[in-house]
Amino acid sequence: MKFCMRILMISLDKKILDKNSRVAQRMIEYGKKDELLIIIPDKEKKSFDLSPTVHVQSTGGSKLQQFWRLKKIGTRLIRENKIDEITTQDPFFIGLVGRCLKRKFKIKLEVQMHGDFFGDYYDKQWLKLSLARFVLKRADVVRVVGERIKQNLTKFNKIDENKIEVRPVVIDTEKIKNYQPKINLHQKYSGYEKVFLVLGRLDPVKNIAWLIEVFKEVVKQKNYLLLIVCGDTEEQRKMFNVQCSMFHKNITLEPWTIDPISYLKTADCLLFPSLSEGYGLVAMEAHAAECPVIMNDVGVANYELKPSGRVKILTVNNKKQWIEALFNF
Questions:
Q1: What is the CATH number of domain 6-166?
Q2: Whole-structure pTM over 0.85, yes or no?
Q3: Mean pLDDT of 101-116
Q4: What is the pLDDT of residues 170-220, one digit of tens each?
Q5: With contact defined as beta carbons under 8 Å apart, do 241 and 209 qualify?
Q6: What is the rounded CA–CA span in Å between residue 292 and residue 313?
Q7: Helix H segments across the chain?
Q8: Element at 47 (helix H, strand E)
Q9: Domain boundaries in the chain?
Q10: CATH superfamily of 174-328
């Protein structure tokens, strides 16, 4: 099978190890253009092919062992194959592995940045950020998903603008526009005038606990509103259920849905309260689904997604602005 390049990818995304996951399927698509040799740090050791041109290995071992095994496996794969490029998923410790391999074998290094690590949310993590600056300044290409990250890299970290490539996450806008919902949130939760939606993992950076406190203030006066939070783990949902115990009528927590586009198509508004984002895929998908968005000024806000009649961008963690926006929606 012919391919353009042979790429050594060092990834943190353990979903690649699940052959049926969306991420694994995306790797298979990438493999139609380039041959991928993917290494993933994980406590279990595995080796398999996703396709004839996508080969996956995990390191096995403890956290410390994983770091050294990434280097060892990477060294072996480079010696056994004609690798054209090394790409790492972030600029931290796996970025450092990529830098070591680049220096040893004189191979082009691309470092990916999917998060806005140099935004205000991460400014106290000086050790990690110092490591990131070291790696990024020595990479041949820095690949970012959004214009905000590029601006932060060039303005505040003196990374050469010429080696930064902005490659947004690809969204099939037409497919979303034409999608026929299989679930209607107003039918599933009848009796509410407006249904607000949050889609995403229940992680501190997503700021959902703060949003729930804001929403509580609103429904004290407007009790016909509903907030649906689609999160992930049972343990996290239990924690949020305690926080929402007095407001179960107005705040509902669900596990992650396999049909997010139906949710976006039938909700009245997507809420996006994140403290930091490299991009903001859900906000962009909501916009494509013609679902109004209220969001913090992070990620795609004011760059790929501009304020409009359907998009309201607010100052990060400005409680007064958020309460006003929800009241007046």
A1: 3.40.50.2000
A2: no
A3: 94
A4: 889 999 999 999 999 999 999 999 999 999 877 888 999 899 999 999 999
A5: no
A6: 11
A7: 22-30, 63-80, 93-105, 126-138, 147-157, 173-178, 185-188, 208-219, 234-243, 260-266, 281-288, 319-328
A8: strand 47-51
A9: 6-166, 174-328
A10: Glycogen Phosphorylase B; (3.40.50.2000)
